[in-house]
Design a protein that fits this description.
There is one protein chain. The chain is about 30% helix and about 25% strand. The protein has 2 domains: about 70 residues, no CATH class; about 50 residues. The chain has about 160 residues and is of the alpha+beta class. The longest helix has 26 residues. A 4-stranded antiparallel beta sheet has the order 3-4-5-8, with no helix packed on it. The chain starts with a strand and ends in a 12-residue tail after the last strand.
């Protein structure tokens, strides 16, 4: 905690002192197109060593939106490279076609189909890569309190 947290009734009772630490988990099942990292806080450790169970209280950004959004990499570069490779493979197999015997045309057609399928699989594999979400150290974060928390004695 970078600053003291006071009660919301009077604003004078210190609930969580500066220097307290939050312990939590983040969701690893990132979906396609997802831009936010979902966090849940499990424990609050006060500077005096006392610990308060938070029971998966959600994290929020400074605006109050659930989760955190900072760095997002959708890996478009890999998709574009795979598309380019697929296109070049298709063009190369088309350029190889000329006026040959039926056997040569059959080999070429089979080769073209294989090259096209390989190109499609490369692109498909790149499209299945989920985005990489990163949060910088020191990124501002909030705890959304969704239930009463018994704090015990005044901190």
């Amino acid at each position: 905690m970078t600053e003291n947290v006071y009660d919301n009734v009077t604003g004078q009772l210190l609930l969580i002192p500066q220097g307290s630490r939050l312990i939590g988990d983040y969701a690893t099942d990132i979906g396609f197109g997802q831009r936010r990292v979902l966090l849940a806080w499990n424990r609050l450790i006060l500077p005096d060593g006392r610990s308060i169970v938070l029971e998966n209280q959600p994290a929020a950004d400074p605006s109050g939106y659930a989760g955190l959004e900072d760095g997002v990499d959708f890996h478009w570069g890999g998709v574009l490279r795979a598309s380019l490779v697929s296109t070049l493979l298709g063009i190369g197999s088309e350029l190889a076609s000329g006026s040959d015997s039926d056997l040569a045309r059959a080999f070429r057609r089979g080769g073209q189909d294989s090259v096209n399928r390989a190109g499609e699989q490369i692109v498909s594999r790149e499209l299945n890569i989920r985005p990489t979400l990163t949060i910088r150290p020191g990124f501002p974060v909030r705890v959304l309190v969704t239930r009463d928390i018994v704090m015990g004695e005044a901190a």
